[in-house]
Write a structure and sequence with these properties.
With about 525 residues, the chain is an alpha+beta fold. The chain has two domains: about 300 residues, ADP-ribosylglycohydrolase fold (Orthogonal Bundle), CATH 1.10.4080; about 110 residues, Galactose-binding domain-like (Jelly Rolls), CATH 2.60.120. Helices cover about 40% and strands about 15% of the residues. It contains 18 helices and twelve strands. The protein has a four-stranded mixed sheet with strand order 1-2-4-3. A four-stranded antiparallel sheet has the order 5-12-7-10, with no helix packed on it. A hairpin with a 2-residue loop joins strand 8 and strand 9. Helix 3 packs antiparallel against helix 16 and helix 10 packs antiparallel against helix 11.
C-alpha cells in the first residue's frame, strides 16, 4: 500500500509555507497516496484552523455583507481597517446574527454529538426547523416546509422551494468537510442527507464543493490541487461545474488579475433563475456565483490569509460568508498555529463564548469536530492510535446530476405593491410564476399568532389554499407555481380570514417562460 506519513514537525513546516514547489505541486496533482498519516496534534491543529479561519472571514467581511450587489468592492474601501482589535467580541455583544453561518453549522454538529454518526435526517431537520434563530431564503423556505409536514429531501426540492439554488447549504457545509479529513466522498454522503433539507441542484452542489475542499485541505498543501480535485465531486454536466471550471481557466489565463476573472464571471454567470429576490434584479445569492467568489479568493490569494479573504470579500454579494469559507479552507490546510497574531487575537477573545442559539463555543466546537473526525476516520477504513491517525484517502467521485428549474426562463419582474383586498388579477403568458410579499400585522413579535389563509386561483380553478403565518414560521414567498401549460393565464386570490389589523401584501411577481427572453412572444 502506498502510504504518506506526515509527522508533526514536517507537517507544521509544510503548513508554514505559502506554496509548494512547482515540481511537488505537479507530482501531487497527478496522484495521491492510498493513505495519509497525521499526528493527532496536527489533526487538531487543522480542525481548529478551519473553525477559527471561518470566524475570521465572517468578521472581516461582516461590514460589507450585501452592501455591494453585483458590484466589486473598490480598492479604496477600507475593509481591513474595520477589522479592529475586539471586533469579534463586538459582534458577539451587539450583532450576533453575523455568525449565522457558524451557528447554523453547529446545529448539525450538535446533533451528531448528541445522537451519533448515524443520526437520521429527521433529527437534523427538526433541530434546524424549530431552532430559535431567524432564517432567510432556502433555509426559511425549508423551515416552513418542515413545520407544515414537507420533510427532506422534498423540503429543499425546487418545486417546493423557490430558493433551492441559493447559497444556504454552501455556507453551512464547513462542518461536513471538517469531520471527514481526506474523505471527500464521505463528506458528500453527509451533504446529500443534510444539504437536501434546504437545497437542491446547484444549491446542494455549493455545499458539496465547499465540503470537499475542506476534506482535501487536510491532506494537501497545494491550493490548486484542492480546488480542482474537489470539483471532481460535482457532475461535469452541471451549471455549477461549468462555472467553477471557467474560474480555474480564467485564473490560468489571467494569473495576476483577479478583477479580470471576476469581470468575466459576471458577464457569463451573474444571472439568477430561482430566487425571487434576486431574479431580474441586481442581487445574487445563488450558490454558483458565490462559490465562484470563494474560488477566486483561494486561487488569487496564493496561500496568503489576508489576500484570500480580501479578494473573496471584494467580489461582493454575500461578502461575509464567502471569505469565511475561503479562510476556513485555507486555515484547515495551514493550521491554527499558522494564523498570524493580527488575525487570531480577535478569535482568542471569544473562544469560550457560546455562539447564539447553541451551547457550543469555539473551544467546545474544536473538540467536538476533532472527535467526529476520529470516528469518521475509523468508520471509513482508517486507523486511530494513541498519537497518530491514518486516513484512508478517497479519490473524489461525482455525486448525481440534478438541476433545478429546468426550462424556466424569467422574462418579467412586475411590481404589484398592493394589498390582496384591493382585488385585481395578474396575467401570465408563460410557464411559471412566483408571487413575493408578506403578512403585516400589528401583533408584537413575541405574539405573532395570526395565520392568514389565502386561496390562489389560476383561470378560475383553485390551485392552493395556503397558510401564511408571521414571524419565524413565515412563508418566504406567498405563492408560486411552475410547470404551467404554456399560454395565457389569469391568477386571482381570496383571503379567507381577513381581520382589521392584518393584511396580505403583494410586492412583486416573477414571470417565466420555457424559452429565453429574446424568443418570448407577448
Amino acid at each position: 500500500m502506498k502510504k504518506l506519513i506526515l509527522p508533526v514537525f514536517a507537517t507544521m513546516m509544510a503548513l508554514s509555507t505559502t506554496s509548494c514547489t512547482q515540481s511537488t505541486a505537479k507530482q501531487e496533482t497527478k496522484t495521491m497516496p492510498e493513505s495519509v498519516t497525521l499526528t493527532k496534534e496536527v489533526l487538531m491543529d487543522k480542525v481548529k484552523g478551519g473553525w477559527a479561519g471561518q470566524t475570521i472571514g465572517v468578521v472581516y467581511g461582516g461590514p460589507t455583507e450585501f452592501v455591494y450587489r453585483s458590484a466589486m468592492i473598490p480598492d479604496h474601501y477600507p475593509i481591513k481597517a474595520k477589522y479592529t482589535d475586539g471586533k469579534a467580541k463586538w459582534y458577539f455583544d451587539h450583532s450576533s446574527g453575523l455568525f449565522d453561518d457558524i451557528y447554523m453549522d453547529l446545529t448539525f454538529v450538535e446533533v451528531f454529538d448528541r445522537v451519533g454518526m448515524d443520526a437520521p435526517v429527521d433529527s437534523f431537520a427538526n433541530a434546524f426547523a424549530y431552532a430559535g434563530y431567524g432564517l432567510w431564503h432556502a433555509n426559511q423556505a425549508a423551515r416552513y416546509n418542515i413545520v407544515n409536514g414537507i420533510m427532506p429531501p422534498e423540503s429543499g426540492h425546487w418545486k417546493n422551494n423557490p430558493h433551492a439554488d441559493d447559497i444556504d447549504y454552501q455556507i453551512e457545509a464547513d462542518f461536513a468537510g471538517l469531520m471527514t479529513p481526506g474523505m471527500p466522498n464521505t463528506q458528500a454522503e453527509i451533504s446529500d442527507k443534510i444539504g437536501h433539507i434546504m437545497n437542491y441542484g446547484d444549491g446542494w452542489y455549493g455545499g458539496v464543493y465547499v465540503g470537499a475542499m475542506y476534506s482535501l485541505a487536510y491532506v494537501s498543501d497545494d491550493i490548486h490541487f484542492v480546488v480542482e480535485e474537489a470539483l471532481k465531486t460535482i457532475p461535469v454536466e452541471s451549471r455549477f461545474h461549468k462555472c467553477m471550471t471557467d474560474i480555474i481557466n480564467w485564473h490560468k489565463e489571467f494569473p495576476n488579475d483577479w478583477k479580470r476573472a471576476w469581470f468575466e464571471c459576471e458577464k457569463k454567470w451573474n444571472h439568477d433563475i430561482g430566487c425571487p429576490e434576486g431574479t431580474l434584479a441586481p442581487y445574487n445569492i445563488d450558490a454558483v456565483i458565490n462559490s465562484a467568489y470563494i474560488l477566486i479568493g483561494l486561487l488569487y490569494g496564493e496561500g496568503d490569509l489576508f489576500k484570500t479573504i480580501d479578494i473573496a470579500t471584494r467580489c461582493g454579494q454575500d461578502s461575509d460568508c464567502n471569505p469565511a469559507s475561503a479562510a476556513g479552507i485555507l486555515c484547515t490546510m495551514k493550521g491554527y498555529n499558522w494564523i498570524a497574531e493580527e488575525w487570531i487575537k480577535n478569535i482568542k477573545e471569544v473562544e469560550d463564548i457560546p455562539f447564539p442559539y447553541t451551547s457550543s463555543s469555539l473551544n467546545k466546537t474544536y473538540q467536538m469536530s476533532f472527535n467526529h473526525a476520529l470516528q469518521m476516520i475509523e468508520r471509513n477504513g482508517g486507523k486511530v492510535t494513541d498519537k497518530d491517525v491514518t486516513i484512508a484517502y478517497q479519490t473524489p467521485t461525482p455525486v448525481r446530476l440534478e438541476q433545478g428549474f429546468p426550462n424556466l426562463y424569467p422574462y418579467e419582474r412586475q411590481r404589484i405593491q398592493k394589498d390582496l383586498t384591493q382585488g385585481g388579477e395578474v396575467e401570465l403568458n408563460g410557464t411559471g410564476i412566483v408571487f413575493g410579499g408578506w403578512i403585516e400585522t400589528d401583533e408584537k413579535p413575541h405574539e405573532w399568532k395570526y395565520v392568514a389563509e389565502v386561496e390562489m386561483y389560476m383561470d378560475g380553478q383553485l390551485v392552493e389554499t395556503a397558510k401564511l403565518p408571521t414571524g419565524r414560521k413565515r412563508r418566504v414567498d406567498l405563492f408560486w407555481k411552475y410547470e404551467i401549460p404554456k399560454g395565457k393565464h389569469v391568477f386571482t386570490f381570496k383571503h379567507l380570514n381577513p381581520r382589521p389589523n392584518a393584511r396580505v401584501y403583494f410586492s412583486d411577481v416573477i414571470k417565466y417562460s420555457d424559452t429565453p427572453y429574446s424568443e418570448v412572444q407577448y
